[in-house]
Amino acid sequence: MQYPAANTLVVRKVFRTLKDSCFAQLKWAIHRLGVEAWWDIKESPLEMTYRPTGQKILFRGLDDPLKVTSITVEVGVLCWVWIEEAYEISREADFDMLNESVRGECPPGLFKQITLTFNPWNEHHWMKKRFFDAPDAETLAITTNYTCNEWLDDADRRVFEDMRERNPRRYRVAGLGEWGIVDGLVYENFEEKPFSLDEIRALKSVRSAFGLDYGYTNDPTAFVALLIDTSARTIWVFDEIYERGMSNERIAEAIIKAGYAKEKIRADSAEPKSTARLYSLGLSRIEAARKGKDSINNGIDFIQDYKIFIHPRCVNFITEISNYTWDTDSKTGQKINKPIDDFNHLMDAMRYALEDFMKPAHFSFE
Q1: The CATH fold of domain 190-357
Q2: Active site includes 85?
Q3: Which class is 6-118 in CATH?
């Protein structure tokens, strides 16, 4: 609003994640500033227009590169780009493509700027080397944390204080902004790779599988959709639902909307009431996963024998599997044969989903 010829592009790796994150946050900001009367906010297409000038805030996902690289604005120039959850962009080439698309001269008084915001989960991410370890003269790298966030209330701060006690590893990254050290991955047999769902489904030996792990306040509800070929020992992960604060009604609504109402879904057996409720809400083939001795490690052993291809749109699955490590003995500092109790919601859902493909059939997962 202070720069009459400027336009902004807001980007996340997957377009569908924008509406409930950046779009909602900017609506909140417009309301907070008390300037709703000057803004037109549309959900189809997803955009915001400043009425006095026609300037726009545009929203795009990197899952549709043509729409990102071919952006034009009617008024002024595209000056600024905000990339939220930039950690999701695992390929530096995808960022370069976006960076190269913001070109052209700026009128006097304007400037070009790309802002990346993220939690630094993995010290091996390309952003650390490029922007923090060896930044060029055009880069400003700042680490902030919740202690300097003036918008948080007491309830927000308690979330981080509880995290400090309950999950120190996550607190160091999400709370303090320190780079996460990833050592001893449970799964090293995965690859992020685009693939055609129809082509994979056409293979005679391929079967589908669906898993659900319950969460609510601190942990997300996690649903995963995948395909498996036991003869080729290959798993394709093609869809996910990942959200906190979901009631059973919202879980059912999301799964039905995604088109999986008639699929066989294996759900966390720790919440039989939730599973029964989802059944009554239309998920007629949902079942509780079976429990058994050493179920987690048995499931991990099974999955480790497979090659896992993850579709780029499954950003939460990629984040979890890239940070799912073996735990450490607090006294010796040595890795133990037990995974950490973090980054495991979609990992658990994957194990539930694959229950029927494991032998012997008498064990499953917790």
Answers
A1: Nucleotidyltransferase; domain 5 (3.30.420)
A2: yes
A3: alpha beta
